[in-house]
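Incident log, entry 3
Record: NADP-dependent oxidoreductase (297 residues)
Problem: checksum mismatch between cached and fresh output.
Input:
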Amino acid sequence: MKRVSFAEFGGPDVLQLVDAEEPHAGPGRIRIAVRAAGVNPVDWRIREGQFQKVRPIELPAGVGQDASGVVDEVGEGVEGVEVGEHVFGEGSSTYAEFAVLSAWARMPEGLTFAEAAGYPSVVETALRIIRQAGVRSGQTLLASGASGGVGSAVLQIARDRGITVIGTAGAANQDYLRSLGALATTYGEGWVERVRRLGHVDAALDLAGSGVIRELVELTGDPQKVISIADLAAPELGARYSGVAGSVPEALAEAAGLISRGKLHIPVEKSYTLAEAAAAHIDSHAGHTRGRRVVVV
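Fresh output:
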């Protein structure tokens, strides 16, 4: 089978489309014929070697953790899913023709494979950091860098829970944020005052790692009310870094419910082929995403 792999840490040029042995579903796992894989910032952070001190991997290594596809192997002990079903979930080396998933759910009706691949990690992350922020109905959450996948999920999940969200993004994405129910403003000079004019901030999320932790602490008045998923140095300023996933199966089940109820939709901004994985990483690293990017197999 074909899969995207890298044999050394570095820039996007280390990614290669190679022939590899097919993986197989071990106990508690399923294998899918991949139809699409989500492109996440963690993919290129791992490729660059950023997590080697905390989560070391052996090289050569595959790329990707989110995918959608058709079940074609069911491992020992797995119940409730059959060969031929359409699922989306999380696993390893998902930029490939076949991948093994450790967590999955049936795809909601009406969802395309490309759309489904964009949900797993971002919804788990959004649910986790909203919970960690401790915000509840009637309070206000600030999401810095809100137009990407996690931000799109945060805005919609928070709105469904009665939480007001202020979102910052580039000028081109202001209408997009408003369409998801956010109070929107641009980043850049004067952004802190623009946020203050929109309302009191009870907690804040750094979704882009753009060096805004000090300002988020200033807006909330308490560094423990600031959570980053993108700035490893956030704890140096008293804020919290959230990088360890919670229950992915529970998150997928909640995502499926929200999608089916029409409460969650994350658009696919751009699709790439396996051979274009390097371009996908370049674009993801550049930011300014509206929704999700996916690799279509």
